[in-house]
Amino acid sequence: MSDLKSLYQDIILDHQQEPRNFGILPDAQCQAEGFNPMCGDRILVQLKLSENGLVPRFTGEACSICIASASMMTEEVEGQSPEQARNKIEEIRDLMQGKKDHIEGDLDALSGVKNFPVRIKCALLPWIALKDALQQCKLKSGGEEK
Ligand code: ZN
């Protein structure tokens, strides 16, 4: 019971019930899809790089952990540079692999997921899609970005 509670924290439930930045981004510059066959999660991450930083959106059908992780991901990287977003992806990966115990902000709610190995892929899926989308943006801009 207390274990499950650590998985489904209030912050996670809140993001799952009211996902932030959910929907299609009409003028997206790049996008990537993530699929997790273990759970059936499918997430599409779209990005636009404005002068105020990244504008992220996501859509898809996925379990609550995956949706919550995607929602928190978009909140986290909104307005950031691609470089900052990439650092955040590394942080989340370290958190899931147990190299890091905690992380700043709402994302720390995901720290309970590492105790449920089958759900780690669910939590990481949106971040992997984000990484692929960032890579696409980079290719499109000829590898130049700042
Ligand atoms: Zn899942």
Q: Which secondary structure elements does this structure contain, and how are they paired or packed?
A:
Blueprint: H1 2-7, H2 10-17, E1 30-36, E2 41-50, E3 53-61, H3 64-77, H4 82-96, H5 117-140
Antiparallel strand pairs: 1-2, 2-3
Zinc ion is lined by residues 36, 39, 41, 62-63, 65-66, 122.
Describe the structure.
By secondary structure, the protein is α+β, with helices and mostly antiparallel strands. Helix content is 46%, strand content 18%. It has 5 helices and 3 strands. It has helices at 2-7, 10-17, 64-77, 82-96, 117-140; strands at residues 30-36, 41-50, 53-61. A 3-stranded antiparallel sheet has the order 1-2-3, covered by helices on one side. Helix 2 packs across helix 3, helix 3 runs parallel beside helix 5 and helix 4 runs antiparallel to helix 5 (117-140). The longest helix is centred in the C-terminal third of the chain and has 24 residues, at 117-140. The mean pLDDT is 93. The site of zinc ion (ZN) has 8 residues, from helix 3.
